[in-house]
Structures
1.
Amino acid sequence: MPKVSLKGVIDMHVHTNPDLRLRAYDDFELCDAAVRVGARAIVIKSHQGFTANRAWLTNRYNKLVHGENDFTMFGSVTLNRVVGGINPAAVETALKLGAKVVWLPTQSARNHLEKMGQPTTNAVDIVVDGKVVPELEDVFRLVKDYNAVLGTAHVSPTEAIVVCEAARKAGVQNLVVTHPEWWIVGMSVEDQIRLVKDYDVILERCFAQNMGGGKYKSNLPDNLEIIRTVGYKNVMVDTDGGQTENPHWEIAMEQYMQYLADHGVPMDQINYMTHTIPSRLLGLE
C-alpha cells in the first residue's frame, strides 16, 4: 500500500508534560511535531485535571513560532479526585476555558483502583445502585450545552452502559467509549457492539495498552477486527500516546494508519476514522 499521510489528521487523546509521569513531549514539542506533519488538531489529556489553559498557551506559541497554519491544540478535563471528582463547577470552568472533552474518572475510578489492586477509599463513584450519581446529571447538561465530548475513561463496562444510556437521555450528542480494549476497562466485543447498536457511541481504539511494569501491548490487530465487526463509522483512531515506552506521537499515528491500510482498510475509511469523526466531535466541520 502507498505510504499514509498525516495531513489533516486529528488525535483526541495524547498525554504530554508537565505530568507526574515523564512524557515523551511537552505541549510545545507536541505542537512542533503536529505542525511538522500537517496535523489538524490534538486534544491533550492529563490525569491531574485541566489542560485547557495549557492548550491556549500552546496555540499562542504556535502562532508566534510557526505563524499561520491549520493546527489547533484543544484541552480537556478529567474528573479525578484531584478536581473534586464529579464536580460540575470544575467542568463548567474547563468548558469556559475552551475544553472540548470531559473525561469521567481515570485513576480515581473505582474500576481502575480495583483492577490495580489499590485501596478504593477515595474512589470517585459515578454509578450507585444502578443509577448515575446526581452530580453527573449536571455534568451531562454542561456537556450538552457546550456541545463538548463525554469520554467514559476508566470506568467498568457495566458503568459505561449505565452512563451511555443516561447521557443519551440527557441529550448528550458526543459520546465516546474510551479505549474499551484496555484490560483495565476490559469491555467485551459483545458490549462494544451493544453500545454502538443501542446508543450510537464512538469507540475510541488506541495504539497500545499498558500491561504494567513498563510493558505495552499493541492493540492494532484487535483494532482491525473491531473495525470489521462494528463498522468504521463508529470507530475513532487515537493513539493515547505520549509514553516514553512507545513511539513518539507522530510515529505511532503513522504506524497505526499504515497498519490499517496494509491490512485492507480503504483510505477513505481511514480518513473517516482519523479526520471526519474527530472533526465532527470537535466542531471543526
2.
Amino acid sequence: MLHSSYIEIRKSALQNNIDFIRREIGTEVTFSSVVKGNAYGHGIEQFAPLAQECGVSHFSVFSADEAERLLQSLKQPATIMIMGYLDNPELEWAIRNEIEFFVFELDRLLEASAIARKLGKKAKIHLELETGMNRTGFNKAALEQAQAILEDCKAELTLQGICTHFAGAESMQNHDRVQKQLHAYEQQVQHLRSAGHTPEQLHTACSAAMISYPETRMDMVRVGIMQYGFWPSPETYSQYVSNQPSRKDPLRRLINWKSRIMSLKSVPQGEYIGYGTSFQSPRDMVLAIVPVGYAWGYSRTLSNQGQVLIKGTRAAVVGTVNMNVMMVDVTHIPDVQKDEEVVLLGIQGNESITVASFAELSIQLNYELLTRLPLNIPRYIID
C-alpha cells in the first residue's frame, strides 16, 4: 500500500559520519551510537542494522521498550545500554539479556542486585552521578549509601561504568557550569576508586562535549545527533570548522523525506487559501496539494513559512498547514504534474531543505523536529 510520504536513509552518509567520529575520538575510545527517540526519527529498526554494517557494536537507548526493539532489530550481537527509563519489573528481562543500564536510584540498585542473585547472573550497571544537571544521578549523600550496596553486592553487580551528563555543552554560555560538572565528576570518581569501586568505563561525553571538550571523551562517547549528520548547535559547528583548513562541514545528512503532489489547483487572484484568512492570493496561482500535514510531523508553525523542493526548485507553503495536507505555490515552476516528487527535507538537484532551516522558521531544535517524524512513515535504505 502506498504511503503519503516516505523517508530515505543514506548508508554512505552514515559511514562518512561514523568514520569522522572515529577519527576524532581515536581507537581507544568506545563509540556508543545513541538511538533513542526512534534513532532521532530515522527508525530504530532501519538504522541499527545499518549502523552495524558500518562497524557499530555499542548502542544507547533511553528506555526498555527501545532496548527491546533494538535487540529484535540487530543482526549481530552488540552491547545495548539503557540510559533512562527501566521499571523494576523489567530488570529481570534486562539482566537475562545482558542489557546494561544506568542506575541513579537506590531502589533500582537494590532490586538489580536481588534479581541478579536470583538469576545467578551479574547485572552490568552504570552508576550515574549528579554533578549539576539536577535531573537524574546520585547526589553525594545517596552515593555513600550506594557505595555500601556496591560493597555488599560485588557478587551480583558489575560496575560497568560511572557516568554523568553535561547541562548544555553545545553552548559556551554554559562553559563554567560544564567545567564545574567535570570537576565534580572527577572528584566523585576518585572517591569511589579510593573505596575500591573501579569501573570498566568512564563516560560523560555527548556529541557536543566530544567536540567542544575533548577531555570528556574518556573511555566512551555517547553520540547521537552527529552520527545522523547534524551538529548539536550552530555554535558547535562554528567552533569546529573555524579550526579546520578546509572550513567544510565533514558531516553528511542521512535523511531525505519525500512525498508527491496529490493534486493541482488553480486559484484566482484575491482568493483566500485553506483555513482562515492567513493567506490571500496576490495573483492567479497554481497550487500543489501535498498529502503531508502536522499529523505527519510537518509542524503547523511552518504555515506560510515552510519550503519544499519540486523539480529542483524551492516552493513556498501557503496557507495553514492542515492535519493531513498542505498547499504549495508552484506558479513559478513550469510543467508541474500530478505525482511529481516533493522533497520536504533533504536534497533535490542542487537545492536542499535542511532541518536547520525548519528550526529557524518553527523555533524547533534539530532534535525535536527529527524525533517528531511518526513511526508509521516508511523508511528505506539507499546507498
3.
Amino acid sequence: MTRNDLTPRYAVIQFFFWVCFAGIVAFSSVYLLDRGLTNTEIGLMIAVSGALAALLQPLMGVVMDRFPHLTGPGLLARFFGLLVADTLVLILFPRLSLLWTALFYGLTVTVAQLCQSLLNVIGVDSMSHGNTLNFNTARAIGSLGYAAAAWGIGEMAAKLPLFTVPLTVAVSAGIVAVMAASYPLKGTDKDKQEKIARESTGPVAFLKEYPVFLILLPALIMIYFGHSVLNTFTLQIVQRFGAGSAEMGTATAIAAVCELVTVLCFGLFRKRFRINVLLCFSGIAFTLKAILSAMARSVIAFNLVQMCQMLAWGIMCVAIVYYVNETIPKKDRAKGQTYAGMTLTAANVLSAVIGGRMIDVSGIGSLIWVGILVSACGSILMILAMTRNSREINSAEEEAE
C-alpha cells in the first residue's frame, strides 16, 4: 500500500454507507409496517422522498462541476451528519405520529438516494487526483457491508424492529460522516476551477453532446425498476411463503454476497469483454432474475434466484461507473455520474408509487410481472444504446488501455 493509497479509507466509507443504505431502503417495509403504515402509504413516502432526491441530484452534479473546491467527501460528511440527527429523532421518539414518522424516515430515504452517485464521484475524483484507489475492491467491501447489515438487521428486526433499523442507520451514518470529513481529497485549484466552470455543460447541452444518454438513461430506469421492485418489497415476496424479516434478511444477504464476488472479479471481466457488452449482458440478467423470482414457490427457491445478483447488479454497479468515466470528458464527468445514479432513484420512485398500491390491490405477484415487462423493455433499449454507440465506446476504451 502506497502513501497515497486511499483504498482502505474509501472501502470503510463504502462499507458503512451500504450498511446504512440497507437499513434505510431494504428494511423500510419492516420498520414502517410495524409502525402502522400501509403498503400504499409506504410506497407514497418512498416515492416522494425519491422524487426529491431525483430533483436534487442533477443540481448537485452541476454544483460539483462548477465549484470543484466543494469536494465530494465534504458534501457526503454534511449529508450524513444530517442523517445522524434525523435518525436520532426516530430513536429518541419511537412513538411519533404516523405523519411525523413518515416525514423523518422520508428524509433518510432522500439523503441515502441522493448520496449514492456522490459516492461514485468520490471514487472517480480520488483516482483523477493522482491517488491510488482500487475501486473494485472498495465497492466489493461495500457489498460485504450490505450483506452483513441485511443478515444482522433481519435477525434483530424480527424481535425489535422499532429499535434496530434507526439505530443501525445512526451508527453507520455517523461513521461515514467522520470518515468523509477526514478524507484527504483536496479541491481543485482556482485556475482549474475557473476553466472547468467555463467548459462545464448544462443539462440540455449535455444530452445533445452525448446523445447516447437519451437512450441509456431511460434504459437504466426501466432495468432498475424491476430490480427495485424485488429489493424494496422483498419482505412481501417472502411473506408469500410464510416467512418474515429474518428470512428476508437472509435472502438479501445472499444477493449481496454473490454481488461481492462479481465486483471483486470485475477486472477479469474487463479483460475479456468490452464495457458495452457487459452493460447489455447485465441488463438481460436483471430481467432473468425477475422472471425466476416470479416462478419461485418457496424461500429456498427464492434464495437460489438471488444468486443471479452476481450477473445483474454485481456487474452493473461497477460497469456503469467505468462507462461514464471512460466516455465522458472530465468537465462533465461528475454530472454524468450523477445522471447515471439518478436513474436508480427514478426507478425507486416509480416502483414505490406503483408497487405499494398494486400490493394492496392485487398482490406482490402482479407487481413482479409488471417489473419483468418493464425490465425487458429496458434491456432492449440498453442493447440499442450500446450498439448505436459501440464504435465510440470501443475507441474510448482503446485510448484508456
